[in-house]
Structures are given as C-alpha cells and as structure tokens.
Amino acid sequence: MKTILIVEDSPLFAQALAKRLKSDSSYLFSIASSLSEAKTLVGTLSFMMAILDLTLPDAPDGEIVDYITSQNIPCIVFTGTFDPEMRKQILAKNVFDYVLKDSSNSIDTVFRSLERYFLNSNSAVLVVDDSSTSRKHIGNMLRKGHYTVIEAASGAEALKILANTPAIRLVITDYNMPEMDGFELVSHIRKIYSREHLAVIGVSSQADSALSAKFLKSGGNDFLAKPFFYEELHNKVLLNIELIERFAEIREQAERLALLNQ
Q: Which of 87-96, 102-111, 226-235 has the highest mean pLDDT?
C-alpha cells in the first residue's frame, strides 16, 4: 500500500484529491489542513509521498515544504500562484514536482505525477558525457525525478553498459565527445535497439540549429539544447519513457493474444 499525506487547507481541493486517490486501491491517504496537523500525522504515521499546498494559514511562506523534506518525505507541491522566483524557490527545496491550481486538469496532473513517482524507479536512464560535471548535473536532475541513473564517460562504455543492463529505457547522450560522438553512438545503438525498445535524447551546447535535425535523422528520439531547465528535461524524459512503456504493453498484449490463438 502506498501511503500518501495530503496537506491542503482548501476543503474543495482536499476532497477532490481524496476522491481521485480513492479511485486507486493501491493508495492509502491521510489529510491535514495545516502545518501543525501535518506534524502530528508525520509523528504517528509513515508516508511514502506528500502532496502539499504551498501556502497554509500557519505556514504562509512554504514552511510545510521545508518540514516535509526535512523528514525525508518526497513531495509534490500544489500552488495557486506562480512566478520565476517562486519556481526557483520550489525547485531549490528538492521537490519531486509542482502543479499549478489554475487548470481544470490540476487534480489529474497531480495524480499522474504521483503515479510517475512510483513508476520511475523501475526505469533506468543512461547518461553519456565525457564531462563528469555535466553527467553529475543531468544525473542529479534525473534522480530528483526518482529515476535510476547510470553514467558512462564515453560511447564505448555506454554500449557495454547497455549490453549488460536490460532495465535501461532511455539514453541521454552529449553530442561532442572524443573517439565516438553522439551521432556515432546513436548509429551503433540503432543497429541493436529500435526506437520502440530504447529511446535516445541528444544534448548539446553547440549553437548549431542543424544539430537537432541531424541527430533525429541519425536515429534519436528527441533533442535538448544546453542549458535547459529541469522541467524541459523532466517532460522530455517522461514522454519518451511513457512511449517505451506503451510499446512494451502492446507487445505483451500481442504475445498473449498469440498464445490464446494457438
């Protein structure tokens, strides 16, 4: 059972979240409407994830996020207002995700993010870059998204890791690397793995608009120009991994049908 803490002072949003969680029997949740109530619940129960309203009557400046993260509970932040400075502050608190309340789809977005938190740990991502600083930076962004991260310092090392790690669903590779650049690595990968089995995202800091086109033509699934925001990486990784998961489901269904028809 996945235990969830909801901290929300709006009865409307709290009830909507509760209704959505009740639709999935794998979730067990508790609701608090203030920081003080949340502290009482955390002191008596164990939670795997928290969904938090950023502004509460007794915690108007996001203190709830500081408290929950200090208890080593990952969280999704729900906020009704947003600006660049607030975004920076939220991400600095090492939250898993944040969702705006300004959309009729907000509850569904929170639930999808919650589902991904538990699913992401099953997906391994291989980060390939000859720069240890860049690998660490991208790796930390991915770990924040609860992915399993594996690093490779070269294309040759990446191919060896892929051959021995079937759990890898996605490769993020830099373009400019010695001996084997990103294009060559993608070409080698596509000789073994199709786009439906393994996604590849290219990254580069070179100001060449043709790079993305060439990378996609070489067999890549997507492309990111450095520097990029956490949300950009998060969304591209999520979309590509979900696509790989859907292909896997289709293959499994086809295999089951084939067995039934034998």
A: 226-235
The Cα 51–Cα 8 span in angstroms is 8
CATH fourth-level superfamily of 121-250: Response regulator (3.40.50.2300)
So where are the chain's domains? 2-119, 121-250
Please give the model's pTM, rounded to 2 decimal places. 0.86
Identical fold between 2-119 and 121-250: yes
d(CA 147, CA 233): 12
What is the Cα gyration radius of the chain? 21
3-state per-residue secondary structure call for the chain: CEEEEEECCCHHHHHHHHHHHHCCCCEEEEEECCHHHHHHHHHHCCCCEEEEECCECCECCCHHHHHHHHCCCCEEEEECCCCHHHHHHHHHCCCCEEEECCCCCHHHHHHHHHHHHHHHCCCEEEEECCCHHHHHHHHHHHHHCCCEEEEECCHHHHHHHHHHCCCEEEEEEECCCCCCCHHHHHHHHHHHCCCCCCEEEEEECCCCCHHHHHHHHCCCCEEEECCCCHHHHHHHHHHHHHHHHHHHHHHHHHHHHHHHCC
pLDDT at 243 over 90: yes
> Would the pLDDT of 207 be above 70?
no
Q: Which CATH number is associated with domain 2-119?
A: 3.40.50.2300
